[in-house]
Amino acid sequence: MPDRIRLDGRVAVVTGAAGVIGTATIRLLAERGARIVAVDRREDDLKAAISDLPASAEALAVTADVTREDEVAEYVRASVDRFGTIDAFYNNAGVEGDIKPIPQYSLESFRRVLDVNVVGVFLGMKHVLPVMLKQNKGSIINTASIAGLVGSPMIAVYSASKHAVIGLTKSAAWECTGTGVRVNCVCPGLIDSRMLSTILQGRNPGNEPPPTEKIVDRIPARRLGQASEVASIVAFLASDEASYVSGSAYTVDGGRTAA
């Protein structure tokens, strides 16, 4: 059966492109024919991510900090200057912040997490939406988390930021009523990644984190998720196969939040 989720010739902008989910996503989108604008503040890691794309892929790397409005405006401008448009925007950059209970959390760290995870998402939509609304088409996919759906100890600030992303997503979808622009988000669960390792270690300071078997006991799928599985949902939401999907929060969590 032919692959129906093709993105041939479309322009996809991905922030946080040097992270594990971002890298998996730009690879899959490129394999499905998209032209890629990869955005990250870590220049060396960004170059490495781009070098791993298929040889035939058209790609532009832009080093930018998503919390700085001038740099967000610049990656949007660079995308349009190079490719003429933006068809899909994966608003993915994020940080987990400190792994601490609320009384021990500094205001500086609190603001840093919200700056990246909420302000960064807001600024991305603020500057990409005019491009998409002008052409009356486009798909925005924000990265939230299952931590944006339920509470979670020691990562209250991260959880709050991801609840905010879901709220931004749903409100933006309503603002695009009557247009061809769709706005959705993905909510990854326990994905095999550096971020998950950091959270588990932070919850067990001075000790070894719990073995994988103990962690996956609480996941109906009985395993950790893979970045490629998140990327697959992003590719679907970016495609015409999701033409009637907007304002949704897609969980990619092996059933973790089903109960």
UniProtKB/TrEMBL annotation:
Coiled coil: none annotated. Keywords: Oxidoreductase. GO terms for molecular function: oxidoreductase activity. InterPro entries: NAD(P)-bd_dom_sf (IPR036291), Sc_DH/Rdtase_CS (IPR020904), SDR_fam (IPR002347). SUPFAM superfamilies: NAD(P)-binding Rossmann-fold domains. It comes from the Bacteria. Belongs to the short-chain dehydrogenases/reductases (SDR) family. This is Oxidoreductase. The lineage of its organism: Bacteria, Pseudomonadati, Pseudomonadota, Alphaproteobacteria, Hyphomicrobiales.
